[in-house]
């Protein structure tokens, strides 16, 4: 149990210092009411350090599709940035559970 906690905390801290390459040009000009739209919007906000806007966008994505693994991953990253580590762990574990291959790869930033 302690090893798992240390592993997750290590991942969270590595996420805090990571960089990703969200391309704003992939976000549609108008909302499409899809989880993918809001996830990309959240990614864009996250890259610009607009944490609360990113959090809102990821939460909208999850509300539209509870199985949106990328949205859970992004929300976990935001919670980590906001020092809400319990919430971060919950979201990151959900992301891995929903889409293990893609989200485990994302941890190898």
Oligomer designation: single chain
State the CATH superfamily name of the domain at 35-109: Tetratricopeptide repeat domain
Q: The CATH topology of the domain at 35-109, please?
A: Serine Threonine Protein Phosphatase 5, Tetratricopeptide repeat
Q: How large is the share of residues in beta strands?
A: under 5%
Structural class: mainly alpha
Q: Figure out the total of helices.
A: 6
> What is the CATH class designation of the domain at 35-109?
Mainly Alpha
Q: What is the CA-atom radius of gyration, in angstroms?
A: 13 Å
Low-confidence stretches: 19-23
The share of residues in helices is 55-70%
Sequence of secondary-structure elements: HHHHHH
* Number of beta-strand segments: 0
Major beta sheet summary: none
Distance between the termini: 24 Å
Task: Please tell me the CATH architecture of the domain at 35-109 by its name.
Answer: Alpha Horseshoe
Anisotropy-based shape: globular
Structure description:
The chain contains six helices and no strands. The protein is mainly alpha-helical and 109 residues long. 70% of the residues lie in helices and 0% in strands. About 5% of the residues have low confidence. It has a domain of 75 residues: Serine Threonine Protein Phosphatase 5, Tetratricopeptide repeat.
Q: In summary, what is this structure?
A:
This protein has helices at 2-16, 35-47, 51-64, 69-81, 85-98, 100-106. With 109 residues, it is an all-alpha fold.
């Amino acid at each position: 149990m302690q090893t798992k906690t240390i592993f997750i905390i290590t991942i969270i801290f590595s996420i805090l210092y990571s960089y990703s390459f969200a391309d704003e040009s992939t976000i549609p000009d108008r909302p499409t009411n899809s989880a993918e739209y809001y996830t990309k919007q959240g990614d864009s906000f996250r890259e610009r350090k607009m944490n609360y806007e990113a959090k809102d966008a990821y939460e909208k994505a999850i509300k539209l599709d509870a199985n949106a693994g990328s949205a859970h991953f992004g929300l976990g990253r935001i919670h980590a940035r906001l020092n809400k580590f319990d919430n971060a762990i919950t979201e990151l574990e959900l992301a891995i559970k929903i889409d293990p291959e893609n989200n485990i790869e994302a941890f190898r930033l």
